[in-house]
Amino acid sequence: MPEMIRVALLDDHPLVLEGLKNRLDKEPDIEVPWTFVDPRELLRAVESGSCRPDVLVMDVSMPHMNGFELGKRLKERFGHSLKIILLSGYAYDEFYSKAYEIGVHAYLSKQSTYAQIMNAVRQSMLGHALVAEKVLARSRDLLTSAEREVLKRIAEEKTNKEIAQELAMSQRTVEHHMAAINRKLGVRTRIGAVARGYETGLLGSLNPNEE
């Protein structure tokens, strides 16, 4: 983790921006060099190179471009190098699922405390995704049957080649399934996927010896 975490804030409400920036700037390991009220301005700044944050904290509901659309575009371009935290006043199941499918590191309520937001910022820099409990409970439904079979064999410490042979698929297909599993469970590594599988009971439900 860098000595200073550089954060960009995006919200179409200036008072919200000012309050969050002032609070984050008080932290010894966090600085907020950039704030934006228009998602188009942020996108231009990022694409021009004038804005290069470690973490982007942004609202979901904004004019011109919502947080899901912007987040998807940014993740497609910058991947894991840019951590994204979404703040929303909505707790719809489909919003949670959509956020984690995009690859955000946290989807937080706008009622979250500053401490919770700061924790999400720091955890994202460690590669950890803060997944809502309701999303964890639905993880089984997020994975296809093929993805669940791949995850089970990853937990058994099998290689991609071994998994491909057992499931009668190519190694490239195994890699695609692994990427989908990581994205849906909000993790980055095989170890993370296995850990999340046990956290949610997903792997337990796949255990053939389970009664």
From TrEMBL:
Name of protein: Response regulator transcription factor
GO molecular function, one term: DNA binding
Organism: Cohnella xylanilytica
Domain Response regulatory span(s) in chain numbering: 6-125
Pfam families attached to this UniProt entry: GerE, Response_reg
Modification sites for 4-aspartylphosphate: 59
Keywords, sorted A to Z: DNA-binding, Phosphoprotein, Transcription, Transcription regulation, Two-component regulatory system
Keyword Kinase part of the UniProt annotation: no
SMART domains, per database record: HTH_LUXR, REC
InterPro entries, A to Z: CheY-like_superfamily, NreC/VraR/RcsB-like_REC, Sig_transdc_resp-reg_C-effctor, Sig_transdc_resp-reg_receiver, Tscrpt_reg_LuxR_C, WalR-like, WH-like_DNA-bd_sf
Every HTH luxR-type domain range: 136-201
Highest taxon listed in the record's lineage: Bacteria
PROSITE patterns recorded: HTH_LUXR_2, RESPONSE_REGULATORY
GO BP: phosphorelay signal transduction system; regulation of DNA-templated transcription
CDD domains: LuxR_C_like (cd06170), REC_NarL-like (cd17535)
Entry keyword Hydrolase: no
